[in-house]
Amino acid sequence: MVTTTVHLMRHGEVHNPDGILYGRIPGYHLSERGHEMARRVASHLADPEAGRDITAVIASPLQRAQQTATPIAGALGLELGTDERLIEAGNHFEGMTFGVGDGSLKHPEHWRYLWNPMRPSWGEPYKDQVARMAAAVRSARDANAGHEVVLVSHQLPVWITRLSLEGRRLWHDPRKRQCSLASLTSLRFEDDRFVGLSYTEPVADLLPGAATTPGA
């Protein structure tokens, strides 16, 4: 029996002073704190005392994921790979602020996209996200069987993948996602069978709101 671990990592903090939903819009890069998160996770994963056996680092094509993955691949002496299937979920509200008041929800033309939160009606269906993420995980697992691999993606695709693997419903309260910036959702497989996962936050002290968080 071959044991393989696939680490699903969310990218680091993004420079987004206007607070918009950037989604798949190009040009959104890591903040200074986001770069520090990436460096810290790189050191965490490359720590020789941890005894990890990471043989591949693969990222979403979006800039924030590539910037998060680059120091990890460098610390491990690996070439960074890219997989389009790890990309952020599509969303009608890309480029807008989301909310009442001055947000996009005060405009009636957007209300028709909110009719079905279980699909969801405002963006890429959850089932489609699961399908592409599951395919990316399988590819990485099979190509690195018996080792570990890091896949750098985005909060919603990572969380939806976890919900699917745990047999939970896909529609959910976004405020209750356990998938913080630069976190690791580590999937364990025996051959091609999913046997469990663990969740870690290597940069918990850098997260917004943490007591020791430095200025971004």
UniProtKB/TrEMBL annotation:
Organism: Paraoerskovia marina
Pfam families for the chain: His_Phos_1
One Gene Ontology term of the molecular function aspect: phosphatase activity
Lineage top rank: taxon: Bacteria
InterPro entries from the UniProt entry: His_Pase_superF_clade-1, His_PPase_superfam, PGM_Phosphatase
Identification of the protein by name: Broad specificity phosphatase PhoE
Gene Ontology, cellular component aspect: cytoplasm
